[in-house]
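Q: Structure tokens for this one, please.
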Amino acid sequence: MIFNDDEFDEYAINNYRNPNCISVLEYLEDLNKFKYIKRLINKYVEKSELRERLILNHIIFLSNVFGVEATVNMLRFKIEEKNHHILNAFLVMLKYIHDNEIHDSELLEEIKRRI
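A: Here is the predicted structure, written as tokens:
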């Protein structure tokens, strides 16, 4: 799915399913998790610093409030395409996507070993 920024915001709002959310600020905090994941993946690329549990926790949280399909679509929009193979390793680990999609198989094995 290809978005622009306006379409992303509309898609996010339409897929947001957090019955405990009581304010716009809480929604925006939930939305910030996409930035955190992007930052953690960039840190892995730049410094080989892997925070796999934190990344997995953020992805699971997002899938709980946006749904799995919407979370995958939004992550793919927010994460640079050159890092999709890294993102996909986490998504394969969680069984959110099929194993036949392009992913970093060494990273996937490292995540499995550490978890």
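A few notes: The chain has seven helices and no strands. The radius of gyration is 14 Å.
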